[in-house]
Design goal:
mainly alpha, Arc Repressor Mutant, subunit A, Rna Polymerase Sigma Factor, Chain: A
């Protein structure tokens, strides 16, 4: 489990050596963390072959960036890259990840600066997205998810038919899901 692990002086030394092309240092880090990365990927994907693909991508990325980036906390970095690779896998499968799931995962690493910044960016993008919805959709969306009103209660309050409320709500939710998925991909690409 990556969340409970701490960056060690040995990690720092291995990363420095790996940046100089030392394959033994890379192998040492791989041996230390591959099972944690696999577990992290499998939790979300629930497919061992896809989780193994994520492990391959994460460590290939680590090796390719070793001489160009400074990693201050390897377990946190691996967690972030693993999560992003999982998002890429989910995109290929056309599966969406709910904002609450993303928020929960980010909160688990909120003590890390990168995760905190990512969470703030994600929440700002979410707020801007809600604000950009057409007026009727925004009102209905906020009544449903911020005020916890049922579609029937919204219909009564706005003097609309329940079917109209459900249609607006369905369009708003679809738009938010699609946009948040794209925002996650853009945030992932921005971290590369």
């Amino acid at each position: 489990m990556l969340y409970g692990k701490k960056h060690s002086e040995e990690d720092t030394q291995m990363l420095l050596e790996m940046g100089n092309g030392n394959t033994h240092a890379f192998q040492s880090l791989y041996n230390r963390y591959w099972s944690d990365v696999l577990d992290e990927a499998y939790k979300r994907l629930e497919d061992i072959d896809q989780a193994k693909d994520v492990v391959q991508e994460v460590f290939t990325y680590l090796w390719s960036k070793a001489e160009n980036i400074e990693i201050r906390n390897l377990p946190a970095w691996l967690t972030t890259v693993t999560r992003n690779q999982v998002f890429a896998q989910l995109k290929q499968q056309q599966r969406f990840v709910s904002l609450s799931e993303i928020h929960s995962e980010l909160e688990q690493t909120a003590d890390e600066v990168d995760a905190d910044i990512l969470l703030k960016e994600l929440m700002a993008a979410y707020s801007a997205l809600i604000d950009a919805l057409p007026e009727q959709q925004r009102i209905i969306f906020n009544m449903r998810y911020n005020e916890d009103m049922t579609p029937d209660e919204i219909a009564e309050k706005l003097n609309l038919s329940p079917k109209t409320v459900r249609n607006h709500l369905g369009r708003a939710v679809a738009r938010v899901k699609t946009a948040m998925f794209l925002i996650n991909i853009l945030l992932f690409l921005g971290q590369k």
